[in-house]
Amino acid sequence: MMTMRWQIDPAHTSVDFAVRHLGISTVRGVFNDLSGTLEATDDGMLTSVEVTIDAASIHTRDQKRDDHLRSPDFLDAARYPTLTFRSTSVTAQGKGKYLVKGDLAVRGQTRPMSFEVEVSAPITDPWGNVRAAATAEGKLNRRDWGLTWNQTLEFGALVVGDEVRFRLEVEAVAKTPAAVR
C-alpha cells in the first residue's frame, strides 16, 4: 500500500490559542509561521502528522505581551526556537474524523498529548493541485511543559490561566506518493 504525503500550506493554515487572563477574560493569539507534513493512505485515511511552529512568531496583538511570551518566562524562543508535534498514533473515529496522539515538544520538554481532527475530502484547485483541509482542536496544561510563570492576584485569580485551548485550521497540498514506512 502506498501513502500520500501532504505538505502544509502555511499561507492557508492557522494555529490559534486562547488562555484565561486575570480570571475574567480570554486572551487569544496565533502563531504566524509553521510548516509540516501529513500522510494518508491511498484511500484517504490519515496516518501521520508532523508540525513545526516558529516560537518567535507568536502574536497576541500586544507587542509587550508578545515579547514577554517569547522571553525565558514562557517560550524562551531564543533558546528553543520551535515547538514541534509528531504523531505516534492516528485512530479513525468515523468518516473523516480521527484521534491523533503524539509528542509535543515545547521549551525542551516533550510530553504526550492528543486531539481530535476532522479532515475534508480532497479537491483539485484551479491550478491543478490536489488539496485537503483539516481542523483540529484540543487543550493542554502549559505547566506540563515548564511554562510556569504566573502571579496570583489579591482576589485569588491567576494572571495567566494554566489551560491553553488551541485550534488548527490546516490546508495541505498533495505531494508525490511515498512507500509506507
List the helices and strands and how they pair.
Layout lengths: L1 E7 L5 E8 L3 E7 L2 E8 L4 E9 L3 E2 L3 H8 L11 E13 L2 E10 L2 E11 L3 E2 L5 E12 L18 E20 L2
TL;DR of this structure?
The chain is mostly beta strands and 181 residues long.
User: Roughly what percent helix?
Assistant: under 10%
Portion in beta strands: over 45%
- Helices and strands, in N-to-C order? EEEEEEHEEEEEE
Order of adjacent strands in the largest pleated sheet: 1-4-5-7-8-9-11-12
CATH architecture assignment: Beta Barrel
Classified by CATH, the class is Mainly Beta
Choose one word for the global shape: elongated
Count, helices: 1
In whole angstroms, how far apart are the ends?
A: 10 Å
Low-confidence stretches: none
Largest sheet: 8 strands, antiparallel, barrel
Rg is 18 Å
Can you walk me through this structure?
This protein is mostly beta strands and 181 residues long. The protein has one domain: Beta Barrel (Lipocalin). Helices cover 4% and strands 60% of the residues. The chain contains 1 helix and 12 strands. It has one helix at 63-70, and strands at residues 2-8, 14-21, 25-31, 34-41, 46-54, 58-59, 82-94, 97-106, 109-119, 123-124, 130-141, 160-179. The protein has an 8-stranded antiparallel β-barrel. The termini are close together. The model has no long low-confidence stretch (mean pLDDT 85).
